[in-house]
Amino acid sequence: MNRRMIIDFCNKNIFPQVTGKAIFYMDCKEVVKTVIDWRKANGYPKEMIARVDDGFLHINNIPVIRIAPKEPHCAFSEEAYYWEDRILARQETD
């Protein structure tokens, strides 16, 4: 694979997996350099399967590097809100 093929690999397989606001924090040049370095370190594999899991890049099921910030997890829960309301209602006195 030459550099153009690696850029095409990143455009087709890695960048679409990053969603939301994390796209704006991702450094595409750094991702391409990381993929090139990873190939050198792992014997230049012909087939690569990329997966981005919560902002972390995995190639061929080997963790490589964090390319985007973690997705924020919502601390709000409808069920918790319901039970908190019930508890507060029970504590109220007339």
- CA-based shape: rod-shaped
Count of DSSP helices?
Answer: 3
Question: In percent terms, what proportion of residues is strand?
Answer: 5-15%
How many β-strand runs? 3
Q: Estimate the mean pLDDT confidence.
A: 88
Could you give the order of strands across the largest sheet?
1-2-3
Alpha-carbon Rg, integer: 21 Å
Element-by-element helix/strand order: HHEEEH
- Terminus-to-terminus distance: 76 Å
- Helical/strand content category: alpha+beta
Instruction: Characterize the main sheet.
Output: 3 strands, antiparallel
Helix content: 40-55%
* Uncertain residue segments: none
Overall description:
The model has no long low-confidence stretch (mean pLDDT 88). β1 (50-53) and β2 form a beta hairpin. α1 (3-14) packs across α2. The longest helix has 14 residues, at 28-41. The chain has 94 residues and is of the alpha+beta class. It has a three-stranded antiparallel β-sheet, with no helix packed on it. It has three helices and three strands.
